[in-house]
Amino acid sequence: MSGTRKPGQRATPAGASGGMQLFDRDGSRKYLTVAERARFLRAAEQAPREARTLCMTLAWSGCRLSEAIALTADRVDLAGGVLVFATLKKRQDGIYRAVPVPPSLLEALDLVHGIREAQRRRGRGSAARLWPWSRMTGWRAVHAVMDAAGLSGPAASPKGLRHAFGVAAVSSGIPLNMVQKWLGHAQLSTTAIYADAVGAEEQDIARKMWG
């Protein structure tokens, strides 16, 4: 029946890009909660070094897996505290966005991938991919850490980390237009789904109103 949806699903806003939602057709959550993301990052600490830094990058930047795999040393701005991603889902090439990330991530990237050393070479590391892996190899590395963290279901994926970043950003009071920029969304209506936070995140928002 037109207009009918399962509990836990929200109506798709008119003009929303691809009808992206935080729940699948069975009402299962497609993003990691704050606690689940913390479990994932703890498990990543025990993973091989390159897998650990990939997991950290996905969790703390909200980038797409393909965007992380394409990251080169020259796009790690240690002084500016940002990672610069080529936004791969735009219709034209050459669209970049800078995403602020924690110092701990930048330090880990430099330690494991030799960012400073690469940037001293000709081209400043423009040819030095941090993870010279296929997308499938990257996916398997992330999935292995999800398994180690005891996480499963639709949220236990690189996309689940990206959604978790969006929910956490909106729950923390980051303006939607800033979250849109960091995630590389073409339309603000796509980013607006993260305002539909649930569970612990929604309780945190409600407490601000009650207080």
TrEMBL record:
**Does this entry carry the keyword Glycoprotein?**
no
Q: SUPFAM superfamilies given for it? A: DNA breaking-rejoining enzymes (SSF56349)
Question: In terms of domain of life, where is this protein from?
Answer: Bacteria
Check the record and name the InterPro entries matching this protein.
DNA_brk_join_enz, Integrase-like_cat_sf, Integrase_catalytic, Tyrosine_recombinase_XerCD
Region annotation (Disordered) maps to 1-23
* Presence of the UniProt keyword DNA-binding in the record: yes
Q: Give the keywords, sorted.
A: DNA integration, DNA recombination, DNA-binding
Question: What are the residue boundaries of the Tyr recombinase domain, all occurrences included?
Answer: 27-207
Record family assignment = Belongs to the 'phage' integrase family.
Q: What is this protein called?
A: Tyrosine-type recombinase/integrase
Species of provenance: Komagataeibacter oboediens
